Amino acid sequence: MSALFELFVALLGVASTCYLVYAYCQFIKEEVHHFLHHTPPV
User: Higher confidence at residue 38 or residue 28?
Assistant: First the structure.
């Protein structure tokens, strides 16, 4: 039972890490998009 619980915790950690990376990438993409569109061409 403890092994199953450890596996569940490990999967939860991996899933949360993947979600954080995905959210971070989305945030960066939005920031870059916003920056590019609001910077006047030199």
Answer: 28
